[in-house]
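User: My instructor asked us to take a sequence, write out its structure as C-alpha cells, and then describe one feature of it. I'm not sure where to start. Here is the sequence I was given:
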Amino acid sequence: MARKVHAHRTKPEGDRRGCGGRLRHRGFGYVRRLPSKRWQASYVGPDLARHFAPSTYASKGDAEAWLGAERSRISAGSWAPLAS
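Assistant: Let's start with the prediction itself. The C-alpha cells for your sequence are:
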C-alpha cells in the first residue's frame, strides 16, 4: 500500500500557531489575565529582573501596548527600571 504524501502547507501570514495548533510564545514579555478579569503585564529587563506594569489593564491590548512601549525604550537605550 502506498503512503499518502502531503504537500507542504504554509501558514497564513501572521498566524502565530505552532505545532499542535497552540499559540507560540510572544516575542517579549508576559501578559496574563487575573481573577479580577484585568490584565497584568511584565517582562524581564536588561538587569535580568522581572518588571511589572505600574497598574493592571482592562484590555489585553492595553497590556500589550505597555509591553511594546517598554520594549521600544529598551531598544532605544533609554530604558531605566521603574521606581518601586
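For the description part of your assignment, you could build on this observation: Residues 60-76 form the longest helix (17 residues). Try explaining in your own words what that tells you about the chain.
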